[in-house]
Known about the structure:
The protein is mainly β.
Amino acid sequence: MNKTKTLKWMPSGITMFAIFAVMTAIVGCVEDKPDVVVKDNDIKLVKPDDGALFDLSEVAKIAFIWTEAESVDKYALKLSPTEAGLATTEFTLDARVNTSYDLPSTAADVLIEAYTAAGYEEEIELFWTVTGDKDVPTQVRKITVKRLPEGPRLEVLGEKDIVFGAIPAGVETVEVVSNVEWFVRSSESWLTVDPEGGDGGGIGAFTIAADIYDDEENARTATVIVSASGLPDVFINVTQTPSNYSLVVLGNKDVEFPADPSGAVTFTVESNTGWEITKSAGWLTINPESGSGNGTFTVAAGKNSGLEREGTVTVKGEGVNEPVILNITQMKATVSGGVPVPDPVYFNNFERGLEGGAIVGSGSLADAGGNYGAVFQNATGGMRQNYLLLPEDVLSHSSETLELSISVWVNASQAGGSEAYGWSPLFMAYGGPPVDGSNTWPMFALQYRGVAQINCAGWTDFTDELNVAGVNTLYHFATDWLADGGWHLYTATFTEYTAKIYFDGLLVNEWVVSGEGNNNVIKGLFTNGHELTHICLGGNQAWNWGDNDPGFMFDNLAIFNAALTAEQIGILYQQKK
């Protein structure tokens, strides 16, 4: 039987106290009748059990259970205090197999009377007697009643030293006996308590839970503190043992897939614990994603229609300190005729961090899930305050090719709507950071709405008359190309005489310049690109214009020293879609 521990306020006029129950051996006598078989434990005390704690107001909730229905129909129960002349209570219950019965409330009155008559001594003895109406042994339980101190009380029951394994089997429950409000807290974040206190209405409880511990050498300790105003704190010391779990993944940890893979790679796990596998990219497939002990799993890659791409697979063992990381690379695709997508001079899919960049302001790396995984999430609002600062040399590689392309996936789902970013910059570059809140030249600007500017050893504003359509089409507000909250591919390509902007592989604006004179020079972007060292993704608008830094998400930023063709841009688009 389980121990039952309760404490509640006594009835009016009675001091709150508890009973510590010590059950003694069963005694009984049975007449010798051959047609009845009687067992010593036919009638069992359900509560209180040995060592149980309860107060007089709980007496009516003491319960007995009859386990042999064929040998008795009814049984009588009597409470007999050892003090002579005190009241005794008796009653009879029908005996039904494996059914428990509560005592009537009159039994509580008898206990209270006996306790009061004893003059509040430290302890007195009482006897419960159970008698069946047939050939049933008489069973006796002795209860020792102990007096408890008066006034505010805080008692924490059970062990004060608790040990958790590295992988906890469950929570530890601690019971608190108190008639005042109490609180509980943990000294360490890896150890939590719930709830964090009680109202002092009698007996309460809280649980202690430990996180999985993956240190394989050293134990760790914490303290749980139970407190109540005006009373001494109670301390529970908690130790968590070090892990003795291991995880080994056999095989090459650097895997390369072709652009069109024909199969999966199998890995063998040797372990004495459970393990889980996560991936950093949606184009990877893991099967299975978890296991226990020794086993195998496979890693497969989908067909790649774009640039070379990278991802990671992480295998983490329960209670194991260091995960196993597999580095996955997939080769780039080629277009029809065997013409490959050129290698970028700079690429960042954020799976391995900022790749030499630095966050200015309040942006962060985030997990977008699916095919996108880790992304850069710029902060919303501010002017020239929030953006990703790229390595200063990424625009210095086109002096010989006289070509440049910039491609990046963009998502505006966290940016606050078209009104918040209708005039915002997308990709900006200058000779240095803003001074007194304003930028100057040299300058290279790609605006979110589908237009551009260059002022670097010559200049052009890509005005309407340079557009092959005779007018610049603006994609903002009512024509916002990011309004659906999905991911879209932005690409800008430049040669000495042309500039083109693509959304999702579709050409949306195109300009042709003469290469000489005002408003007609692109070439300086290539020959003097090394002067553009303050290079910004997602903010830092030109001059002192009052346009917000947009709260866009960005992924797969690629800079090429070549002008991508429409077919090559289509491959980049299909890579994510």
